[in-house]
Design a protein that fits this description.
Number of strands: 16
Distance between the termini: 23 Å
Number of helices: 11
Oligomer: single chain
Number of domains: 2
Largest sheet: 7 strands, antiparallel
Helix content: 40-55%
Order of helices and strands: EHHHHEEEEEEEEEHHHEHEEHHEEEH
Strand content: 15-25%
Shape: globular
Strand order of the largest sheet: 2-6-7-1-5-4-3
Structural class: alpha+beta
Length: about 400
């Protein structure tokens, strides 16, 4: 199995400048390759340029511009071209499936924050010396950079990446490991119902509070964004010092909210994996749930529109994004795989409207957001708990129906 590690780097002033130049030059390579593809399609009878053709040009590009392109790792530049190729592959996939295409865009220097090295030892070298006083990672053109390694890296390092987040620099490793021993069986199964009022309700009647990190930081974020809006839009190199501080303040607040959300997701998922052998959850289509409502043209007055509830839907969309269901489910599946647990997604339709006692299904069974009252047998319970019980039952049925 593959596991990722992320460590904070401690570059010197000179190394910070070199890392910044590396990102800048890889961004220039990415944008140049994108421009070539655009020009070839528009002006050369809709000709498509492939990754192989652009990779074959790297040798000439490096010899033509040795100061900016020749000093960096050849394999890392190939990885940057692969990123562009994957962006085009995703674009054509979305076109074929009828989704919003999202044509690949040019990257600004501040928006290009990662450089990948596909193989440890090719343009980079992770110092895996055990019990060394200082851990370092070496990058071609940068040198040996100190790393704050807060835990041991288990397995063989496969890839290395450099990532910039605000003023901080990180090294991201992927290591190939043997499948770890599964956790001891507990004999427990559980269904979970994700929500807004409560982040999670389980089939045993338990609840996990929704921390609402984004809402708690909303006032500070609003003030920081208002302060930033007072400055005219400028390129990074033309910003004043106060403008740069305002940009960093907004980024710092967003980063804090993201880290808090990740921390909550990790702790919640770890608790579930340790306590239960089987976990069932709703197969939520989060992207569809958070779409803006379609406009409603007024047939009586052409050019005008009727109210469509966009304001209230925007508030619900913010709450869905703040809960971070997608991140949580991704982390839950990863932890379950490492622990030898089973996680299963089930159809969420009518899980909160079906009575767990008699099976009667009707929207009238849920008169309010929290209350469940069966119109047939009179069963009363919390609506989210009822949903979690039905999710668990559907998950167990699906698990037992699968071929051995």
């Amino acid at each position: 199995m593959i596991r990722a590690y992320k460590f904070l780097m401690r570059p010197t002033v000179g190394q910070t400048a070199a890392l910044t130049e590396m990102l800048r030059d890889h961004c220039s390579l990415y944008n140049g390759a994108l421009q070539e593809r655009r020009d070839a399609y528009r002006h050369a009878s809709k000709t498509s340029v492939t990754y192989g053709q652009q990779s074959a040009q790297l040798k000439e590009i490096r010899s033509f511009d040795p100061e900016r392109q020749g000093r960096w790792s050849f394999s890392s530049q190939q990885a940057t071209l692969r990123r562009l190729d994957k962006a085009f592959a995703a674009f054509f996939r979305r076109v074929t499936s009828g989704e919003a295409p999202g044509y690949p865009r040019f990257r600004g220097v501040n928006w290009f924050d990662t450089v990948d090295f596909p193989k440890d030892g090719d343009g980079c070298r992770w110092d895996s010396t055990p019990h060394a006083p200082v851990t370092r990672v070496r990058f071609q053109g940068v040198g040996h950079v100190k790393v704050n390694q807060h835990r041991a890296v288990v397995g063989k390092v496969k890839t290395v990446s450099v990532k910039r987040e605000g003023r901080k620099w990180f090294v991201v490793l992927t290591a190939e490991q043997d499948q770890p021993d599964p956790l001891p069986l507990t004999g427990s199964v559980v269904g979970i119902d994700l929500g807004i009022a409560n982040f999670l309700a389980d089939s045993d009647g338990g609840f996990v509070e929704n921390p609402r990190h984004g809402r708690r930081a909303a006032a500070k974020l609003e003030a920081a964004q208002q302060a930033l809006s007072r400055f005219p839009r400028r390129k990074a190199k033309d910003r004043t010092r106060n403008h740069q501080r305002a940009v960093e303040k907004v980024a710092e607040l967003h980063g804090k909210v993201r880290r808090q959300r990740l921390d909550h997701a990790h702790k919640t998922a770890l608790g579930l994996v340790r306590e239960h052998d089987f976990i069932a959850h709703e197969d939520l289509k989060i992207r569809n749930m958070s779409k803006a409502p379609a406009p409603k043209p007024d047939p009586r007055t052409p050019g005008t529109f009727l109210p469509n509830g966009a304001g209230s839907k925007a508030g619900l969309n913010r709450s869905i994004a703040d809960a971070g269901w997608g991140v949580f489910l991704t982390i839950l599946n990863a932890k379950a795989e490492s622990a030898g647990r089973e996680v299963m997604a089930v159809d969420p339709r009518n899980t909160s409207r079906r009575c767990p006692e008699c099976g009667h299904t009707a929207k009238e069974n849920r008169p309010t957001q929290e209350k469940f009252h069966c119109q047939a047998c009179g069963h009363n319970a919390h609506a989210d708990t009822v949903g979690a019980i039905n999710v668990l039952r559907a998950g167990l049925v699906r698990r037992d129906a699968q071929p051995a």
